[in-house]
Amino acid sequence: MARLVRTRELLRHGWDNLKPALRRENVARFVIALVLAFGLWAWVEASNDPEVQRTISNIPVIPQDLPDDLVIVSDLPTVTVRIQGAQSRVQALESGAIQATVDLHDVEAPGIYTRRVRIRLPSRLRTLEVIPPDVTIQVDRRVERSGVPVVVVLPTDLPPNVHVLSTRADPSTVVIRGPERRVEAVARVTAPVEVSGRNESFQDTVSLVPVDSNGIVVPGIVIEPSTATVAVDLRVRGQVRRVIPTVVGADRLAPGYELAGPPTVFPTDEVVVEGPESALAAIPYLTTTPIDVSGWSEPRILWDVPLDTSRLPAGVTVDPKTVNVSVQIRRTEETRTLQGIPVTALNIRPGTVVELSPATVELEISGSSAVLQQLQPSDILVFVDLENADAGIYQLPVRVTLPAGVQYQRVVPEIVQVTVRTPATPVPTATP
Fold it and tell me: 311, exposed or middle or buried, with CB in 10 Å at 0-12, 13-18, 19+?
């Protein structure tokens, strides 16, 4: 108690000593000194570390406080932020130190919402502008669906000697989670299996893929479990050999026609041959029975063309024994070079005369033999367009007009010199 009384007496004594110093004029002097000191400090800071602005792009927008039963299904845009602050702080700022957020705590149902972007910066930096200031977000309800079937998907390019007898996926059904509309769009979950290089039954663990009824991948879906063990029971028989069509009479096609390329086998040019290993090793490829194209003038598709098995070793069989063959025919093309083709000047300005250098060109054209044989010089127009040019010297491109069925290849030269001049008016002679 005595200590408390003594402390109180000391405080009272100190206050009595301080009161004279706290007169009004002293307080005013103190405030003025404080303001001047702060102003001096601010001036020094501004001189040594001036205020600058900076624009930073591609700042990702982060959603906050969205209820757990909802999920964002739209792509969140990025924003551009213009900031201001001391030069040293602005220059040292990294884009990762800027946080752009949108508050979604009040979102309670699926829909489309527009929200203001909020920017959080390190201390002593200010936000001047946010572009765009608002973002639009689409929200859907997060749902779960069980019992979605797992379907094994085999490659479409299986070799013809590989036969898949059966497939089995474990598990056969899965649970999927995600936005309600996307979950509803999932028709099945596929398990793609790679068979290439396999020659016996196998098991493999594959990643599962959610797809819609058209087989298009549905994004944003979580699958549980995300993988499945697929068992494939397959049988490999014989070996694969290519089939090369045999064509005869290509030199006797209709006049003016030729093969557009080697005949092709479709949908695949591979067949399966079976037999003793030593016999199969002696068969590099197979051929069809001869296809006579004599007199043909148009493309044709030949169905079920027999394979030539007459020279196969004993004990060797072929499957299938026929193939489909496409034979493409086109008109024979030839190229001609025409010399001394005159160049015509079009759209000459009235009252002027024109000189061309050179006045003729070399023209290379192509087309079928029949069309080129009927081509007349009057069918070809090689010209330069003066477009009513005034007197002067011009370098103009050569243009070519050809009849149907004739293709332009090149012209030499491609540029000609055109001199346009106005003829001098004759001076009348005095009559004696």
Answer: exposed
If residue 183 lies in a helix (H) or strand (E), which one and from where to where? helix 180-185
> 């706290």: which residue's tokens?
22
Same domain, 255 and 324: yes
44 phi/psi in degrees, rounded to 5: -65, -45
Total structural domains in the chain?
5
| Rounded Cα gap, residues 135 and 278, in angstroms | 72
pTM above 0.85, yes or no: no
- Residue 48 has a pLDDT of 63
Residue-number span of the structural domain to which 36 is assigned: 2-48
Task: Find, among 120, 131, 124, the residue nearest to 97 by Cα.
Answer: 120
Residue 286's alpha-carbon distances to 206, 279, 306, 404, in angstroms, are 38, 13, 11, 43
**Tokens 């002027």 sit on residue:** 352
Q: With b meaning 16 or more CB within 10 Å and e meaning fewer, what string describes 386-412?
A: beebeeeebebebbbebeeebeeeebe
CA distance 365 to 400: 10
Q: What is the pLDDT of residue 51?
A: 87
Beta-bridge mates of residue 234: 164
- β-strands 406-412, 344-346: how paired? unpaired
| Confidence bin at 117 (pLDDT 50/70/90) | very high
Instruction: Choose between 361 and 24: higher pLDDT.
Output: 361
Say what the pLDDT of residue 169 is. Answer: 95
- pLDDT at residue 245, rounded to an integer: 96
pLDDT in tens, 320-356: 999 999 999 988 888 889 999 999 999 998 989 999 9
The tokens for 305 are 């063309």
- Evaluate if residue 124 carries a pLDDT over 90: no
Alpha-carbon dihedral angle through residues 50, 55, 60, 65, given to the nearest 10 degrees: 50
148 and 229 share one domain: yes
Last residue of a domain, one of 331, 350, 369: 331
Residue 223 lies in a domain: yes
Question: Cα 182 from chain centroid?
Answer: 24
In this prediction, residues 284-294 reach a mean pLDDT of: 95
